[in-house]
């Protein structure tokens, strides 16, 4: 099977005197390396400069609200079942009268927690959800942990804020992924 | 000797000591920076602006690591190893003339730690002592890989020292002195730089200098792929730091040695004109001192170029196999350097300095002929 057309047959032929002197090939090699010395470096200075990672990047989880600002999650638990890392846990509660503008369904998640140390950012929770309630944002990463407490993210960190709505289809955004102001506010 | 002269002398010694250490420190930084740039990376750039504090951070790390001595190691020799390596590395920069001379009052003080008329021999002696550091350390570790590394280092250094010495003899014959200062003074005009009169000797010397410093392509004593870490496998903390540091000091000293032996030391083209202009416009003493300073700067520029060259080669050429190393040393470099000595001697009989070009020309002709006659190698693409 031919994988590339750049492969060369190994030849064990006698080296010529010029090759035995090494110097011509050493000079050639030095010329190649010094050329790289002056080349532009492709390095991106990571924490200061961030690349746009594309619309399919799986980052920070967000519990979506609907158009009227009601939480979509109905605490069905399918995401917790789908999660291979068993990172999700929740406690369901029944919607009371007068809370219709808070929760869309009659049952909602009173507590919804994701253990970010367990989560592997596979995105299966997003796929499993029948209510389109949970998403992994493509534009924001979960920050690096410094301490052990605060690793379990509760609803305070997960539920989408009304002034910071998340839209997936926003492929013209080409800037720092952690900048919340760059995502368009609409659903 | 007068007290002031003694003071200035002591000052020069201290300054040279300090400069050697400083340059060795920043060579570690430069090495990583150069390595990065040659490999399309940026190198260290987090500690301080442009990563300039990186050597300090490294040293701090080295100091705070656990200083470990293996139970089976012979303790005092184990400690002696890095000390020897460091000591010999630091000693050798003493005889290198860094510049012409400083004048003040009626005194003239050469820019050199000690001026002895056997400078070249002194360096040779100290450099060959340097291998003891590696050998003692490798042997005392009581570890097969360290021992193998130490043996390799010893045989390699001894083999290449011969060619190194022989290639130097041609220069000594031309100068008629073992004093480094005399050798440098000999190369006052540009086309009398020894690299032009001794091209072959220069190449041999350069190769051997690489081998003596245990730098790639001759870094077999510490070759990671075969010997874990070579002679310093068992070392940690600042003892390891000393070994690594000694390598960089050696690199600095050999660069200085090469530039003073072959590249005219602190000489540069038209330096007499510059000297005359400076003494003419600023008076005898200041002008002379400034001319000396320029010469020193030029000398350091040459040194830095060679340090860079050491690194450049390191990231270009792969390591030799051990038999290739020995073949190159004994079967190529030593006969060539003997031939070099003979031809130089013959030239000196008739007062011609450039006779060694003959060898170069003959070799180039032979090489071209043999590669012309060789069957064209066809790189046939592999068939399925
Ligand atoms: S992304 Fe994967 S691991 Fe993380 S919570 Fe969702 S399903 Fe679990
Ligand atoms: S996020 Fe979706 S899948 Fe998970 S409990 Fe809520 S509605 Fe069910």
Labels describing this entry:
heterodimer; A: 187 residues; alpha+beta; Alpha-Beta Plaits; 3-stranded antiparallel sheet; 5 strands; elongated; B: mainly alpha; two-stranded antiparallel sheet; globular
Describe this structure in words.
Chain B: NDH-1 is composed of 14 different subunits. Subunits NuoA, H, J, K, L, M, N constitute the membrane sector of the complex. Chain B: It holds the Pfam family NADHdh. Chain B: The chain crosses the membrane at residues 6-29, 76-99, 119-141, 162-184, 248-270, 290-313, 333-350, 356-374. Chain B: It is a multi-pass membrane protein. The complex is a heterodimer of chains A (187) and B (384). In chain A, 18% of the residues lie in helices and 13% in strands. The longest helix of chain A has 15 residues, at 23-37. Residues 175-187 of chain A have low confidence and may be disordered. Chain A has a domain at 61-175: Alpha-Beta Plaits, CATH 3.30.70.3270. Chain A has helices at 17-20, 23-37, 78-82, 124-128, 155-158, and strands spanning 61-63, 88-94, 107-115, 134-136, 152-153. By secondary structure, chain A is an alpha+beta fold. In chain A, the strands form 2 sheets. A 3-stranded antiparallel sheet of chain A has the order 2-3-5. With 384 residues, chain B is mainly α. Chain B has one domain (65-367). Helix content of chain B is 68%, strand content 2%. In chain B, a hairpin with a 2-residue loop joins strand 1 and strand 2. Chain B is globular. The A-B interface holds A 1-2, 5, 7-9, 11, 13-14, 16-19, 21, 23-24, 26, 29-30, 32-34, 36-37, 39, 41-43 and B 34, 37-42, 203, 312-313, 315-317, 363, 366-368, 370-371, 374-375, 377, 379-384. Residues 73-79, 90, 109, 128-129, 131, 133-134 of chain A line the site of one iron/sulfur cluster.
